[in-house]
Amino acid sequence: MERRLTGAQHKPTSHHIGEITTTATALFVTLLATAAAPPLQVGVISKQSHDVDALAWREDLLVLFEMKASPLVTYPVRVKLAAPFTEPGEAGPVEVAQHQLIDVEFHSHDLSLYLANRDLDVPLGRPEGSAWPYPQLGKYISEPQGLLDYVEAWGEVFLGYRVPKVHRTGRQVVMGYLANGWGDEIDSNKTKAGLGRTDDIKKGTYQLLKFGAYYRDGSPHLPIRGVLAANLDPLFLYADYLEKLIDARWAPASKFRPALDRPEYQEIWERELFYIYDAVLAFNRPVINDSLLAGCFDFAAAENALLEGQLDTLLASWRVA
Where would I find the beta strands (DSSP E) of 116-238? Predict the structure, then answer.
């Protein structure tokens, strides 16, 4: 039987993953918001215990974000060694067994990001300077073939992951293991991508209800809307956990009143009905319910703005930062 790592010793803490993925998602949202007409500004709330993960605003609108953005695949960093690692054995040095944690003096080696399902290495060089490895990654994907290699590698994992686990066959099964461990006999639900974890869907739904009840309903002059943002929607769980709720509307009981001509019925102004999800901004399948948000997060508009150079100033400011 093969040895396995236990206790997720190879995995960063959820706290750090949350900080990184929230910031990364906010950058993508910033591209969309900056391409809007008129544009919105976006800011991240650094205190994780706060109700809101991020904000987008302009003079006539405030948007509150709950973000759930676990990555689909985390490719390993690889180093080429001159010789195998050894440890003392009964008859002398023996090669260290696989799936064993070891220390590597990685600063003295050239590293690469290993796209395992394509057996390709993205050269990263030695880890030097505060900007490493972003210039090296940027150089790789600035070449058409490099970008195509990376997109194809990610896309294959995505196509395998979106198939329900019990229906996967052939290489789809292999891709399940690359999707952050979502393929083992005992799956780690905390590693499922985007909104793939049911607990995240439930928490996200509660947060959107809270945004409506505590903030939107108490703001008669400034429109406030809530958005659930994620890199991916629940994919194969969508039908069971989101589809029938995606355009559901609600209102506090205090908003209902007996109908004048039929007192046994309750009535309410349509403007007093709230969507549970004003928007679910998943990058693979965005859903915008509220009309005020229709032009705020438009993927087609953002694509055109990128191609026409309208977002060059924003992108240049990120490179400087």
Answer: 120-125, 224-230
Count CB neighbours of 172 within 10 A: 18
Q: Please give the model's pTM, rounded to 2 decimal places.
A: 0.88
**288 forms bridges with which residues in the sheet?**
279
Each residue of 190-201: b (16+ CB within 10 Å) or e? Answer: ebbbbbbbeebb
- Cβ 118 vs Cβ 152: under 8 Å: yes
| Separation CA 190–CA 176 (nearest Å) | 14
Nearest to 278 by CA among 244, 256, 245: 245
Residue 264, both tokens:
């046994």
Full domain range(s) for residue 63:
14-71+196-320
The predicted-structure confidence for 193-218, as pLDDT tens digits, reads as follows: 899 888 999 999 999 999 999 998 88
Out of 179, 207, 237, a domain closes at 179
What are φ and ψ of residue 97, in 5° steps?
-65, 150
Sequence letter at residue 69: A
